[in-house]
Amino acid sequence: MFNADQIGITGWALASGLGCDRASVHESLQTDRRALSFEHRFREWLHCPLGEIPWHQLGFERADPFGTDLLMQEGCRILFDQMQQETQLFHRFSAERIGLFVGTTTSGIRGFFRALDQQKSAPTSAPLRADMQQAYLMNDLIDRFPFHGPAWTLSSSCAASAHALVLASDALQNHMIDAAVVIGVDILNLVTIFGFDALQVLDHELCQPFKAERNGINLAEVIAMVQLERTPVGQSGTVIRGHHCLSEAHHMTQPAPHGIWMQKTMEEVLRKSGLRAADISYINPHGTATEANDRTEGEALAQVFGSERRFHPTKKLTGHTLGASGVFELILSHLVLEAGEANSPTHLALQPSKPRLALSNSFGFGGANVSIIIEHHL
User: Fold this and answer.
1) At what angle do helices 136-144 and 68-87 cross, to 10 degrees?
2) Is 4 a residue whose pLDDT tops 80?
């Protein structure tokens, strides 16, 4: 059931193709603007649409295709500094009571290839270098800002930052910390692009989640972060109403037939939150636009919710941001609820409910399933 302590979203920051500020992202969502383009920094290697961060808006003259780690580090520093100045994080909470939770699949990827080049030219038995570990970004933020509390990096494929949200929420519920910074970040790079192309799941046109003509994903990048705190029951704003994680372990990349474990994940988050399917006014499915994911998730959604009128797969607009998508799509779902029925995305019949409730799914390779419900009070 719903606990007495609510976990509220008290701050957020975002850099994505949809925009880098509240007004731009709101407008993009309301008009269903697609933040995907064939004109990107990787067009020399691959002709397909990608979703790029407008790096010039963060002060970068150009984004180096080979500068993944630098873009990730500097972008996260800029956005976190903006967010913590707005929320006064370090003035309001003891540094020992602030947790840092990062979900990513690409942190340290450039460091790995630098080490590989060095190993080819001068073989050594050197241990794993700091800049080729996925905790590299987390450690950089700890060095730059006064984080002295628990710190975690999670890399569970496309569910990574959703798992980070769950871990942060539980730490707050159990009073292990008083505030949490949860970051979802993945930056485009050739390894990821060629890897998904080799799997033959990239759509070389604009992706079409849940459409009969769907033909694969469009990859994208994002830096998304939220600040979470315990907040008084009934206070205006958005809170995490409930979450559920499930590891189905059916196959390395394919979901179980008919989405039976996706269905179970959504049923469990509803049960734990004390809600019925009819209570949910907005659903942001995982919706990658691959044949297997959308077929199985579609079956699961139909079993739990029936009508598709509440479904709005934001990956159609943004592309797939991989491990960062959990935090990113939580922010987008929060903005949809905040905007309300009159300003909801085009073609979406947002169900009227008080309070407004949204469900966001993150389903990763290996059967890493996470469903999160958020609740918005006016």
Assistant:
1) 40
2) no
Which residue spans within the chain are E strands per DSSP? 6-15, 98-103, 151-154, 179-186, 222-231, 237-247, 282-284, 356-364, 368-377
pLDDT score of 109: 78
Asked if the peptide bond before residue 257 counts as cis, ω within 30 degrees of 0, the response is no
Q: How far apart (Å, rounded) are the C-alpha atoms in residues 259 and 247?
A: 13
Q: Domains, the chain, ranges and CATH?
A: 6-377 (3.40.47.10)
DSSP β-ladder status, 98-103 and 151-154: parallel
Cβ atoms < 10 Å from Cβ of 224 = 27
Query: Model pTM greater than 0.85?
Result: yes
d(CA 199, CA 339): 38
In this structure, the number of other CB atoms found within 10 A of the CB of residue 195 comes to 13
Instruction: Say what the alpha-carbon torsion angle 92, 94, 95, 96 is, to the nearest 10 degrees.
Output: -150
CA–CA gap between residue 159 and residue 102 (Å, rounded)? 12
Which tens digits make up the pLDDT trace of 154-168?
999 999 999 999 999
String of DSSP letters for 275-322: --GGG--EEE------HHHHHHHHHHHHHHH--STTB--THHHH-B-G
